[in-house]
Amino acid sequence: MTTTQFAPDRFFDPNPAQRKAALALYEPVAGLPLVCPHGHVDPRLFADPDYTFGSPVELLIIPDHYIFRMLYSQGVPLEKLGIPRADGGETESDHRQIWQLFAEHFYLFRGTPSGSWLTEELHSVFGIDEKLTGANAQEIYDQIDEKLTSPEFRPRALFEQFGIETLCTTDAATDTLAHHQAIRDSGWHGRILPTFRPDAVVNLDTAGWRDEIDKLSAVSGIDVVDYAAFIRALENRRAFFKQMGAKATDHAALTAYTNRLSDDTAEAIFQRAL
Fold first, then answer.
1. Per-residue pLDDT tens for 187-219?
2. Maximal CA-CA distance, the chain
3. What angle (nearest 5°) sits at the alpha carbon of residue 143, between those of residues 138 and 146?
4. How many C-beta atoms lie closer than 10 Å to residue 234's C-beta?
């Protein structure tokens, strides 16, 4: 890989004047600590000081829907990538075979954000400058696997290595935040904050919504039998999240349209949902 492939200005506008202006803005802040206000990082990673990411496939392929959906769109069966089936059926369990299949199709990611990110990750995090192909797949797998088993690649160590000041997770309204409490109790200084994500109980058409309401009742101590109790339960959870350091809420709102309903109308809708 060429040096220019990883130059700081590689994604800036090709216009020289705009590139110069972008660099002038970027360079003073490039080395500052990272503040990450939104993420889907599981707090369990930091609650356990000995947590490991598993194999290269468990880290980079199976949990990344941007990767496996792209491959699926090009005819690669999800079962061949080790993606769990909804019916519990068999999937490929040989992670070296999955990695080989991924490497043989890596060329499909050329020119995509996922391809740029993966290439950057292999280079900057794992020190791999060779382009991933089917021919070198197993060699690169071994290099990544060796690093993932080292203490330097535990989540807490990477948090410090990356210069992260604050990282916010994304947590369901019914989450007890036990892992966040464990992080606090451990004495580790990393700042991991929860973010309140109530979609599973707010969106009435969410699969399993009724079960989520039962969880909300249990975790809040408020029997959610009507709309007023529902609001009190949400307020209870918001207050608890704030107590645990939360700075924000996160909502998958499909539209910005809102309308104030009367209490009677809201109650009628909520009762039908129940």
1. 999 999 999 999 999 999 999 999 999 999 999
2. 66
3. 120
4. 19
- Rounded to 5°, the CA angle 112-118-120 comes to 105
Q: How many whole angstroms separate alpha carbon 36 and alpha carbon 162? A: 12
Long-range CB contact pairs, 250-254, < 8 A, 24+: 250/38, 250/170, 250/195, 250/196, 250/197, 251/197, 251/198, 251/199, 251/202, 252/199, 252/203
Q: Compute φ and ψ for 192, nearest 5 degrees.
A: -115, 115
Measure the CA–CA gap between 55 and 142, rounded to whole angstroms.
Answer: 10
Q: What is the DSSP letter of 82?
A: T
Full-model pTM? 0.86
CA distance 237 to 175: 9
Domain positions in the chain: 52-150, 157-273
Q: Give the whole-angstrom CA distance, residue 271 versus residue 123.
A: 54
pLDDT in tens, 222-244: 999 999 999 999 999 999 999 99
Rounded to an integer, what distance in angstroms lies between the CA atom of residue 52 and that of residue 269?
46
Q: How many CB atoms are located within 10 Å of the residue 245 CB?
A: 16
Name 185's Cβ contacts closer than 8 Å, sequence gap at least 6.
none
Q: Which fold has domain 52-150?
A: uronate isomerase, domain 2, chain A (1.10.2020)
Record the tokens describing residue 11, joined without a space. 């994604």
Q: Using the 8-state DSSP alphabet, how is residue 5 labeled?
A: G
